[in-house]
TrEMBL record:
Gene3D superfamilies recorded: NAD(P)-binding Rossmann-like Domain
Keyword terms of this UniProt record: Oxidoreductase
Family, as annotated: Belongs to the short-chain dehydrogenases/reductases (SDR) family.
InterPro entries from the UniProt entry: KR_dom, NAD(P)-bd_dom_sf, SDR_fam
Organism, scientific name: Nonomuraea maheshkhaliensis
Name by which UniProt lists this protein: SDR family oxidoreductase
The keyword Mitochondrion is annotated on this UniProt entry: no
Pfam families in the cross-refs: adh_short_C2
Domain Ketoreductase: 7-188
Amino acid sequence: MGKLDNKVAVVTGGSRGIGAASALALADEGADVAISYSSSADRAKAVVAELEAKGVRAAAFQADQSDPAKAAGLVHSVVERFGRLDILVNNAGVGVGVPIDSELADESAFDRQLAVNYTSVVAAIRAAFPLLPDGGRIISIGSGVGTRVGFIGMADYAGTKSALEGYSQGAARDLAHRGITVNVIQSGFIDTEMNPADGPTAPIFLPTTAMGRYGRPEEIAAGVVFLAGPQASYITGAVLRIDGGYGA
């Protein structure tokens, strides 16, 4: 028996990296899992096959998380397919690192980053809370850069993640009367395609962590499962740092 048996979860950006690891970890605990993807249909299909091999129901939905309407529509599509929704994991995110005074600063890139990292997360939360049962779970993947920048060129990205944390803390207050918890995982440098451990920025990032290594997607997924489970019923409005000591 898994601690998430009979639950339905949706993980945005679930075709790879932290999203795929979180989807698989939730399935290991018995949850049926839907994932969203933007363009990686083949990868999403492969993740669904892995999920189904664990004996749970699974589905993938194409949804561009830069469009708040599609982010909200995803929530309704999952409920239509599975009949309910218990756990919302806002994982999809983008990162653009350019100093605000650089000639390379791109306003359209900023707008998309804000939409994916913040505006569409808000849209998904607003769509989900009326459909979640009492005791439902909302978990968003933030970043340590949201509270400790540490590098040039991160102002725009950091702003979106800081906004996400503030909104989540407010939403936790608003939804507490129904036992719906709203929490953020503040991730550190995780070995993904977006920021590989052998990438060009690794020599800059690694010295800022106490543990001196990149994290694994599965280490973030473990935090997702914990916050989604019954043991975390008294945790809300929290920021769980899984960052290898970046914020230490």
